[in-house]
C-alpha cells in the first residue's frame, strides 16, 4: 500500500487552499475486485474524485464528499489486466483545486500455480475444457491457473477459469486458453535448445521410431514409394543424420505488447537422397512426415513472474518428391548442410536471419528422354509453448534434375536449398507467418557437350508442344479455382509459373475484392501469410467451354459472392492452345441502389522459368508490371501483368510478401517497382470501382509472356 501526503497541484487562483489529506492506494489489485480508498483532510466538506489518466487527460472514475475530515471512495477494478495511473483530486465544479501525484496501479488476473501432482487431467493444448485437481482448491471464476511439467501435464498448462464445481475429492475447473500478456503485464523469456540434451522423458525413443546417434543427434533411413500414372512406381530413398540447436527470446510490456523477439535455429545435417521413376509417367509425393511421431527434445521451463512457462522443442523430418518423365530416370545426391535460419522482430519490423555452408556430391543420372525429377528432405524444428504452435525453422535440401533433348546442356542436376522461418507465438499474440529467408539452387553437374559423346535417342516420342523461340513461353494449362485462385503452366518450364505448394489446390495467384473494410479472396494462397485474416469467396457457379482456337478460345466463367455484402463478381478467363497470354474480364454488381466504392485486385507470386528469384519491370504509362527472367541461353523474357481497363488502375512489382501486404491494406497500390533488385518477387494491379447497383461495373487484365523491355 502507498500513502500520499500533501496534494501536489497548486490551487486555482482565488480558491481556498485545501490542507493536505492523506490517501492510501494499493500497488496492485486483482482484476474485477472492489477497491476501498480512504483518506483524511482538513475537517471541511469538499468534493473528492478518483481519476484515471487517459492520454493527456484525467477522467473521473468515482466521486465522493469529504465530511468531518474523512472520505471513503469505493471503486471496482476493471475485469481485464491493465496498468493504470490514478490520482485523488479535490474539486470545485469541474476545477481541480489540488491532486495527489499520479500513482501506478497494476490490475492483475489472480494466478494460482498448482503443483503438478495435484492436477490429474487437462484439455489438449490450446483448447478449452476441464481441468481436474485432486482435493479442494479455492479458485474463483476469472482466476488464471498454471502448472509446470508432470506426468499428467507434459506440456505444462496455462488457462483462465470460466467456472468451478466440486466433486468428491476433486475440484473441477472449466477453462479457456489465455496468454502470457494477460497474466504478466511485463516480462521476458530467454531459452536455448540443443539436441545434445537428449529426448524428453515423455517421448519414447524405442519402438523403432527413430535412432539416436552417439553425438546426441538423429539418424533415420528413408524409403518412400509413390504412385505414378499408368501403374508406374516412383521411389525416394536414402538417409539423413541431424543435430539441431536453437535460441528464443522475447520481451513484452502491457502498453507496447511484444516489442522485441527473435528465434534462430541451426541444423547440421548430412544426407543421401536418391529418386527414380521406372518409365514414362507423372508422379507426386506430397510433403510427408518421415518420423512416425516428432522427435521431442527435453522440455525447458522458464519462470516468468509467478508463471512456469513450458517450452517443448520438437523435430520432424518431411520428405517430398515429384517426377514428369518420358522414360525411366534415376539419380541421386549426397552432401552436408550446416545452416542457421530465423527471424528477429523489433517494434513491428521483421528481419530475416540466414547463413549456410554446403557440400554436395552426386550419382550421375541415367536418363534417355526429357524429364523433370525432384526430391526433398526438410528437417523442421518447432518450439511449442504449452504444447501450442510456436516459432519454427525448416531446412530444406534436395535434388533437382531437368533433361531436355533440345537444350544444351541437355541435362542439369542441381541441389535446391531453402531456409524458412516463422516467429508465431499465440501465447504472446505474435504471428509473422512463414517466411522464406534463403533460396538457392546449387549447380552440381550437367551433361558434357554433345560433340564429346553420341547424342541420346528417346525411347519414345517426346510430348508434343508448340514450337517456341528463345525466351518465349506457351501455355500448356490454365485453371481458375471455384474461389478465384489461379494456376498456370507452360510447355517450356517444369514448374508452375506462379509459386505453389503440393498441398494447395491452386498457385499463389488470385483475384481479391475489398468491400468496406472486408477483404475477400481465394481460400488458399501459398506463402500468403501477409494477407492476414480475410474472408474466402463463396463459390456460386463455374462453367467451361471453347475449343482453344483463335476463333473459339477456351473460356472459363467463375461466379463468386462476397458473403454478407450483396456483392457478386463474375470472372471470365480466355486463352488459346499454344498461346502466351490469359485475358481476364471482371464484372461486379451489388444490390439495387448500392453505390459503394470497392477495390478489385489481381495479384500473383511469380515463379517464372523455374525460378523464384529475378528482377522486375514497370511501365508507368500503362501500369504494366512484370517478373523478368533469363533463360539458360541468355535470352530474357517477362511474365507481365497488364491492367487493360479502366483508366486509373495502379500496379506494383516487389518482394512477394510486400505484394500480399499491399493487398491486405485494401488501399491503392503504390505504383512502384523494385526493378533493379534481384528478389523473390510478385506483381499486382488494382482498380477502385464505384458500384452501379445491379448493373455490373467491369475491368480487365492480362497475364502474358512477352519479350524483355
Q: Could you explain the architecture of this structure?
A:
This protein is mainly β. The chain folds into 4 domains: 2-108, S-adenosyl-L-methionine-dependent methyltransferases, CATH 2.20.130; 111-178; 190-452, no CATH class; 475-707, Glycoside hydrolase, family 65, N-terminal domain (Beta-galactosidase, Chain A, domain 5, Distorted Sandwich), CATH 2.70.98. The chain is built from 2 helices and 47 strands. Strands 34, 35, 36, 37, 38, 39, 40, 41, 42, 43, 44, 45, 46 and 47 form a 14-stranded mixed sheet that branches. Strand 42 and strand 43 (624-630) form a beta hairpin. The protein is globular, with a radius of gyration of 32 Å. The N and C termini lie far apart (73 Å).
Shape: globular
Task: Determine the structural class based on helices, strands and strand pairing.
Answer: mainly beta
Number of domains in the coordinates?
4
Separation of termini? 73 Å
User: Major sheet: size, sense and barrel closure?
Assistant: 14 strands, mixed
Tally of contiguous helical segments: 2
Question: In angstroms, what is the radius of gyration?
Answer: 32 Å
Total strand count, please? 47
- Tell me the helix content: under 10%
Overall average residue pLDDT: 82
Task: Tell me what portion of residues adopts beta-strand conformation.
Answer: over 45%
Which runs of at least 5 residues are low in confidence (pLDDT < 50)? 1-17, 198-215, 452-469
